[in-house]
Amino acid sequence: MKFIGAGARPGQAQIHHDRIFTVPNVLTVVRFLGVPLFVWLVLGVQEYGYAALVLAVMGSTDWVDGYVARRFNQMSNLGRVMDPIADRLSLIAVAVTLVIAGVVEWWYLAALLIPDAVLLALSLFYFRGHPDLPVSRIGKIRTALLLVGTPLLVVSALPVPGADVYLVAAWIFLGLGLVGHWIAAYNYVWAIVRKGKMIKGSKFDVDGGTR
Question: For all residues of the chain together, what is the average pLDDT?
Answer without folding.
Answer: 86
